[in-house]
Amino acid sequence: MGYEQVRDTDPAVADALVGERQRQEDTLAMIASENHASEAVLEAQSSELTNKYAEGYAGERYYAGCGYADEIEELAIERARGLWGADHVNVQPHSGTQANMGVYLAMLDPGDRILSLELEHGGHLSHGHPANFTGKTYEVEQYEVDPETGYIDYEGLREHAESFDPDIVVSGYSAYPREVDFERIQTAADAADAYHLADIAHITGLVAAGVHESPVGVADFVTGSTHKTIRAGRGGIIMCDEEYADAIDAAVFPGVQGGPLMHNVAGKAVGFGEALTPGFEEYARQVVDNAEALGERLKEHGFSLVSGGTDTHLVLVDLRESHPDTSGTVAEEALEEVGIVLNKNTVPGETRSPFNPSGIRAGTPALTTRGFDEDACRQVADTIYRVVDNPDDESVKAEAAAEVSDLCAEFPLYDREDALVDFE
Ligand SMILES: Cc1ncc(COP(=O)(O)O)c(C=O)c1O
């Protein structure tokens, strides 16, 4: 795709679009929340459905001409049920945050209480951060990971739930490398007679593939992103039991959204269809194996990992022991220079500021989409080590950039004939 039509009318935007495509081709996307959607998903997302208003739900729209919109939304829902096994699915949330917003609006009143994981310990803004609508609308207290182990302090969470008496307990995280024990969190929610929202934004694909325990059937509400470990294009999703279906649907529309982004719903339908093929389970397993290989090799180089390793798609590196003078920001910037794109991150017990924190977070979903195996991930770990160890050494960085370039050529993405993953 050369964006020829955009170029005809708008060369400046075409240049940026081509530049971004090339950037993705030529660099290693290791931001744990990113992935590469297939050409089929991209095509569906750029379809004429972007023109269509379809307020309401299939069979009950507020506008005429929704026959194909209905068909696509029903396909997306049916496929989501096949992937996660929920009774009720709403595929309309524009994003993971709006999926969470839908649940809060459906079940809480302003001033109600949320108990969620501290942002610095791996939580998400939409779980009650003061800068987010949740922090401004609800009373929020937060639980933490155990400072010794880096694992969720489940016992502390249960005690906290008993003393705080929340209306909803939120599980599911942005920077937590370990398998989440949703049953134990449900016990804490039960102790407080609270709802349980499991936000599986990051692990949606891992759960669908059965490589991470599922909260469906455990938590009252499950929300997710459709573009992280599952490659269905940007968006959100809510799943719940039938008893909450009407409340959730009304909260999404007209509660927090107007017309659904039907082109994105089409992307979700296509991406969910891809994830239902047998190759997806293998992909998800490889994502986790790759993260483990990456983490183990980083440890061999002396890096300290929060919780000592990973069960998921990401590792969280605490630089304070191995590189006390190098912040996450310095590491992120040096790595970006060589084509490794990951993000600075706070770590539990953070001693720097959130804008210049002590950690870096690295994920393997996008590398695995390119076809990376454990060996390739170990090579990346070696390169990360040399760059973080010598962030100002131009010759080290030049060598690292050449290694990244070789890996990109070995595992091509969109632009070449054999590229972008066999989704069969
Ligand atoms: C746990 C969690 N929930 C929600 C979101 C929000 O997703 P979105 O960016 O689609 O709003 C994220 C994003 O990374 C996340 O990590």
UniProtKB/TrEMBL annotation:
GO biological process, alphabetically ordered: glycine biosynthetic process from serine; tetrahydrofolate interconversion
Enzymatic reactions: (6R)-5,10-methylene-5,6,7,8-tetrahydrofolate + glycine + H2O = (6S)-5,6,7,8-tetrahydrofolate + L-serine
Broad class of the protein's primary localization: cytoplasm
Pfam families: SHMT (PF00464)
Binding annotation for (6S)-5,6,7,8-tetrahydrofolate: 119, 123-125, 242, 353-355
Keywords: Amino-acid biosynthesis, Cytoplasm, One-carbon metabolism, Pyridoxal phosphate, Transferase
GO molecular function: glycine hydroxymethyltransferase activity; pyridoxal phosphate binding
Cofactors that this protein relies on: pyridoxal 5'-phosphate
Modified residues (N6-(pyridoxal phosphate)lysine): 228
Protein family per UniProt: Belongs to the SHMT family.
Assembly and interaction partners: Homodimer.
UniProt-recorded name of the protein: Serine hydroxymethyltransferase
Species for this entry: Natronomonas aquatica
Lineage: Archaea, Methanobacteriati, Methanobacteriota, Stenosarchaea group, Halobacteria
Gene assigned in the entry: glyA
